[in-house]
Amino acid sequence: MSIEDFESSVLSLELDGHVATLWLDRPEALNAMGRAFWEDLPLAVAALNADPRVRVIVLAAKGKHFCAGLDLKEMSPELLSPASASDQRSTATRNQERYQAILKLQAAVSSLANTDKPVIAVVHGSCIGGGVDLIAACDIRLSSADAMYSVREARIAIVADLGSLQRLRSIIGAGHLAELALSAKDIDATRAAEIHLVNDALGDAEAVYERAVSLAQEIAANSPVAVQGTKAVLRANDGRSVAEGLEFVAAWNSLYLESHDLQEAITAYFEKRPPNFSGN
After folding, report:
1. Are 126 and 258 in a shared domain?
2. Tens of pLDDT along the chain (280 residues)?
3. Does residue 220 sit in helix, strand or coil?
4. What is the total count of domains within the chain?
5. How far is CA 270 from CA 19, 207, 275, 276, 277, in A?
6. Is residue 148 in a domain?
7. Do 73 and 200 fall into the same domain?
8. In terms of residue numbers, what domain contains 237?
9. CB–CB of 15/54 below 8 Å?
10. By the 8 A CB rule, do 19 and 10 touch?
């Protein structure tokens, strides 16, 4: 599926040069994550990942808030699936179906982490529950000064299961993660920046989006071969020792170092001009 062919009632795609914006586009529901979201997110990411025009993805939201988290009205029946009098399925069968449903939601969020392209999250307003799962799966997070964050699942009697408890440990550290997840407290953008949940918190929604696009353009100006390789190596470092990580990057460069982009970089250096990278 191409970017132009992608259709969704809750997401939209926009391409400007080599920078694509993936918009959470359900502002009337505070971008709450319902059935359409879970179906469409991996399709949107796959379309962006497959398009050679796209070098960087910006994840942003329309409306007053980034994301209010899981749409409990839509999703509760699927996740709780209480047995009716006519339901002949065993408890084990119903539990297996619930397990598969959770894995499907996890895979949708993980599509952001697994795409080859760098992803920059831009947060304004509220970022609650599943919204934090989304930004935790991104490579870089920028925040407006008025944003609010909450790993809120414990407050509604759920264990967060879409990636926050796994990904945030390496981002903010075990202590800060435990504090946020166990208390389910709200924190402001200043605190989020202090604990490195976000890279920075500055300006209003429009200003922080413009800043994210500017950063995305800086990244997109570099070799796509090197940028995507760097993301792959950074991702591969998780769970590996320094020695294992060095071995991985040696193997990576052995495969990809001899690219047209490297030839272009060297030629441009000697010709004293900016390089024009093709991604080959």
Report:
1. no
2. 789 899 999 999 999 999 999 999 999 999 999 999 999 999 999 999 999 999 999 999 999 999 999 998 888 776 666 666 677 788 888 889 889 989 999 999 999 999 999 999 999 999 999 999 999 999 999 999 999 999 999 999 999 999 999 999 999 999 999 999 999 999 999 999 999 999 999 999 999 999 999 999 999 999 999 999 999 999 998 888 999 999 999 998 888 888 888 888 888 888 888 888 988 8
3. helix
4. 2
5. 28, 38, 11, 14, 15
6. yes
7. yes
8. 224-270
9. yes
10. no
Structural tokens at position 136? 């935790």
157: buried, middle or exposed (CB in 10 Å: 19+, 13-18, 0-12)? exposed
Task: Please give the structure tokens belonging to residue 47.
Answer: 């379309």
Q: With a threshold of 0.90, does the pTM exceed it?
A: yes
Instruction: Map tokens 């699936």 to a residue.
Output: 81
Q: Is residue 260 part of a domain?
A: yes
For residues 119 and 231, give the distance between their C-alpha atoms in angstroms, rounded to a whole number.
10
Residue position matching structure tokens 């809750």: 10
